[in-house]
Amino acid sequence: MTPLVEVQDISFSYSSDKAHSIFRNVSFSIRQGDIFCILGPNGTGKTTLLKCVANVIQGWYGTIYFGGQNISVMKTSEVARGIGYVPQNQTPSFPFQVMDIVVMGRAPHLTVFSSPSKKDSEIACEAMEMVGILPLAERPCTMLSGGEWQLTLIARALAQEPRVMILDEPASHLDLGNQMRILRVVKSLAESGIGIVMATHFPDHAFLVATEAAIMNHGIIAYKGPPDEVITDSNMRETYGVDVRVIQVGEGVDRKACFTSL
Amino acid sequence: MSAQDKRLGIGIAPGKLIVFLAFVLGAVAVIALMLGQSTIPAATIVKILASQLFPIDRTWPQTLESIVLDIRLPRLLAGILVGAGLSISGAAFQGLFRNPLVSPHILGVSAGAGLGAALAILFFGNILAIQLFSFIFSLIAVSMTYGLSRVYRTTPILMLVLSGIIVGALFSSCTSLLKYIADPVNEMPSIVFWMLGSLNNASNRDMIIVGPIILIGIAVLFSIRWRINLLAMGEEDARALGVNTGRIRLTIIICATMISAAAVSVAGIIGWIGLVIPHIGRLLVGPDNKYLLPVVVLVGASYLVAVDTLARSAFASEIPIGILTALVGAPIFAYLLRKTRSGW
Lengths: 262, 344
Description:
The complex is a heterodimer of chains A (262) and B (344). Chain A contains nine helices and twelve strands. Chain A is an alpha/beta fold. In chain A, the strands form three sheets. In chain A, strands 6-7-8-3-9-10 form a six-stranded mixed beta sheet, with helices on both faces. In chain A, helix 6 links the parallel strand 7 and strand 8 (195-199). The longest helix of chain A is centred in the C-terminal third of the chain and has 16 residues, at 176-191. The radius of gyration of chain A is 19 Å and the shape is globular. By secondary structure, chain B is mainly alpha-helical. Chain B is globular. Chain B starts with 13 loop residues before the first helix and ends in a 5-residue tail after the last helix. At the A-B interface, helix 2, helix 3 and helix 4 of A face helix 9 and helix 10 of B.
């Protein structure tokens, strides 16, 4: 199976001086149904990397292929039909209704002069149904909780009908229940065949859903591979500079988990 | 799906509201043609207007026809175009800048127009020169703002606002200098009076030139109005949704600038409308630009025509409309803000 997204040796820097790059020489690939989790300390360039792959910011070096095509020669709308992007929490300045926001995901399928049709609304409703926020359709987005807002953004990306979805820390700022709800949605999206790239601050989330994990530190991918091999005592200690134990937990949980001490 | 029917605002379906507002505009327009130094009955006005298209026997004096067609009609058209144009520009800019406190003047249109008008008053002193100079100078001011914002590479929206402030300050201080050196008996009052805004000078000739500019600007903004929603989500989100943000931003800026420059050149500086009518529109139908822009065009046009009618007929001498727009509008806005569900 050929990869949906293939990132080859990309680097990004805000200045022309390559020594001050945000990240460099990053490579990975995503296949259908993959969940690729990227871990790493604050400020190592995870968000910038995801924005480059989602074609949201430009000016990177290297090559990104989507479905075998170089995305730097694709139109913005063409990329958006294939790659959905869920940004980190930020609420809009106007009280759009949840429905209005989700239907915005149809934009790459519409011409500049048109607005969403009935069919687009139906697709948006299906997306809301899938992530479980259909009852919120008429709620102004300024009156949503953090978890509801995150699900709204996921539904918006889903309405793009993408083959790959890129999520930037979708579970940060959320309570335990909402974290699991988001992960369940992410997992079901992968099961439906979407390839997922996700940045997260929680190693346990990688153990829960990831098919592949990576640790990014100082602007490079330090480790990459199956979660069990990447998230280890020594790798975590080296990355975060704190004492970490990765322990196999039984008692109905039956997975590895990360524990720290002060 | 019921989600499309029940919306924010006062809860009336947008389609019905738009039809209602169109009737309101029609009624306001007829009243505006009726009122003035001499009151003309509605029936006569309808007949006079119809006689331009159909062969009808003239049962009214020629002076009445001239008042309606040459004085009140161009002024009505100016009120409709300026009110609609400023309101839609304001709504589009508020979406583009993701800030409900933005007015169409943010990029320096009025500062440029002010300097152009002051120069024309000082050196030529005729209406045509004032209109031409204010139009050209407002385009110059916005071009400078846009050019300056391109110098810095990051966060284009913030840079546009800051550049607008810089250019606005530059032009305003030049205008102040001209006021300072102007002859205080004739020139200075006419500069000040021009800046307060008036539809008094609107003629049929102006409407032939300015009308198409404003109408084309409105039509283009109308055609891309759903895309403005995407910009309101932020630059990066919009790109992730496949929007060519640079191109659509420039389109909005060009349209809103042409509209406001044309509006300012016939009517002087009329504040408040471009800022507050979009808010009133949002209170009525919610923030979705698909419905907001049509509503804002109708409300803005009705509002400016109504206020202009008040300005020229309620008092012994005409009051500058720029004063009345806020004087009448502020209490209305305060009332609406309390009465409706805005989502804030």
